Each structure stands twice: as C-alpha cells, then as structure tokens.
From TrEMBL:
PANTHER family: CARBOHYDRATE DIACID REGULATOR, DNA-BINDING TRANSCRIPTIONAL ACTIVATOR ADER. It comes from Amycolatopsis iheyensis. Residues 333-390 form the PucR C-terminal helix-turn-helix domain. Belongs to the CdaR family. Pfam families: GGDEF_2, HTH_30, PucR-like_N. The lineage of its organism: Bacteria, Bacillati, Actinomycetota, Actinomycetes, Pseudonocardiales. This is Helix-turn-helix domain-containing protein.
Amino acid sequence: MRASGAIGLWASLPRELAIRFKPRVDPLARAILQEVQRAVPEYRQPLEGAFGHIITQGVRQAIIQCLDSVGTPGAVPLETWTTVFRNLGKIEFNEGRSLDCLQTAYRVGGRVAWRHISEFGQASGVGADTLCTSAEAIFAYVDEISALSIEGYTAAQTRAAGTRARRRRRLLELLLADPPSAPQTISAQAATAQWPLPAEVTVVALEPRADQHSLAAPDLHSDVLVDLEGGEPCLVTGDPEKHLKNLTERLGGWRAVVGPTVRLTEAPRSLLWARRTLKLVQRGVLPDAPVTRCTDHLSTLWLLADEFLVRELCSRSLEPFNDLTPKQRARLGETLLIWLQSRGSAPEIAKKLKVHPQTVRYRMHQLIDLFGDRLNNADDRLDMEIALRAEALLGS
C-alpha cells in the first residue's frame, strides 16, 4: 500500500526528534513556499483565496503528518496521507495545469526540508545514522506523494474524458437527428462538449471489414465526433482535410465511406449519402475499398438514387432487347452504349470493342432494325444511355 515505506522510516526515528523540531514547522513551511514559488512560475500568484489556502495548507499538513509519524507507528492513518495528495492531483487537473508543476514543487519541497533538517540535526548533535534515515524518509515521502497525486490527476482526467465523451456523443446525435435539432440546442451542447461549431461538416459512415477478426478503434483526432457503439457507426468532422488525412492507415479494420461536405445544418444529408454509398459498396456496385468517397461516385449515386424509376426506364427504353438471348443482349447493349457515348464510326467502335469493323456494322444494322427512328431522337438516345449505364451498374 502506498506511503507505507515513508511511514515506516518516519516511525523508526526517535520521537524526541519530532518534539524538538516542532517549533521549526512554520519557518520550514514558509521557506518551502518561497522556494516553490521561485522554482514554479505557475505558483507565483499571491497566496490568497482558494489557491493560497490549498497550497499553504498542503505544505503545512505535509510537514505535520511527517512529524506526527516520527517514533509513533500508525499515528497518522494511511488514508489521511493518500486522500490529501490524491486530491492535490485532482485539483491540478481541474486548474488546467500539467503534473509537472506539482511534481517540481514536491521535489523542491523535499530539498528544502532536507536542508532545514540537516542544519537542525547538526546544530542539535543528532547522530549521522538518524540524519541518513531522515533523508531517506523525506525522499521516499516525495516519491510516494508524487505517485498519489498522479493517481488523483489520472482519475480526474479519466472522469473528465468520460464526461466529455458522453457530451460529444450526445452532440453527434443532435447533429444527425431527423427531424433536425434546434440550432440553439446544438450550440448549447457543443459548448458543453467543448467542441467548436464549424460552418461545415463531413459525415463518415463506418462498418467493420469482413476480413477483420479483432477490431480496434480508428486512430482519429480528438476533435472528431465518433459513434462506434450504435447500430450504424459513424463519425463527424469539421475539418476533413486535417482529420481524414491518411484515413486508410488509421482505420484499424473499419471500412469508411466519406459523405459530402455540407453546411452544419445539413449533416443528416451527408450521413444519408454516406450510408447509401456504403450499401452500394456492400452490394458490389462500387469497388470494395477501405475508404470510399461519395464525391468520386456522384453520377452513380444520382443514377441509382431511385432504383424503381431506373428499372422502369430500363424496361421502357430497352424493350426492343426483350426477345434476345442474354448473350445477344449483352453484345448489342455493349455496342449501343459505345455508339451512344462516342457516335463513332465502325472502325472506331470496333477498336474499343476489340472486334472487326464488319462485326460492328452487322450489329449496328441489327440495332437499327430493333430501335428504328428512336436512334435519331436525342431524348430517346439519352434514355437508352442512362438505361444501359444503370444495367451495367446493377448487373442486370
């Protein structure tokens, strides 16, 4: 149990030493405070108010605890030691300082205490063995109270991180809510979650990759809002250029689909398109990649936004293909699509299809027989091209 080493060393010293040193407590406390303020700039403010009370009482109580333990095992309950210095660690975190300040203060205090005890011992004829034990006790005490403060600091840090994580999770829910949350509600939650509201956001849909047996959390910037626990994991960022850089290497086994960047109030729309794109990846319509960006597939997303209408268009525009065999339909459909795209000559189309020009001429005659004047109508040609592209995407 912590602090027992220092307590044992203090208890091994003669009680008379503490009684004789007691009048020096206040001068020692003042000397420690002066040296700490000189060595630690963050503690140079006037010793008044809550800060002054905490640091003054902390120093004085540390000295008295040590003296009360001299020659009297168990005189100071272990909980008294641990509570005081854990609380100091918590206070440091809540004040927004790093542990470096407190750790430096402890080391400085230990050196000042040893200097005073050494001078007292030499002036009072204290034996060398007793002085050595006193030095060992002082620096063991410094090590142990440092460890206790680290525990307190870490506990406060963990608690604060948990609170902030919950608040940011709630903020993410508000940003993606449908119907939309009130702007003032979002602003208030963002302030509570310590998340500066951006003008625009990007939403990323996530799912575990099928080839992953163990899944780690993505290695993301702390300002990214993340939900990995819901049924449809996602994240929100206000700075995609910074936060999504090298995303593939940082996913930790997740597949990501990056939605379009939108105004803050349209975050649900970014998520909608990210999830639609993810479904197309799952179906094999889009390539299976660690990261897919909606903006790289806008025409496909538009084309397949309403598959019922697309299939109706395919059925109407490509009706002349209905009586063909699947192989005939595939060959003529491929030829028709290239002709619609390029309006090229037979040799040009043949080069793209890697067939003989005469084969293309034969197929074009078949297409003219099937579609007739519709091949000369711009609206019909557009419908055919859309239908053929859609069929290629849907695998129909």
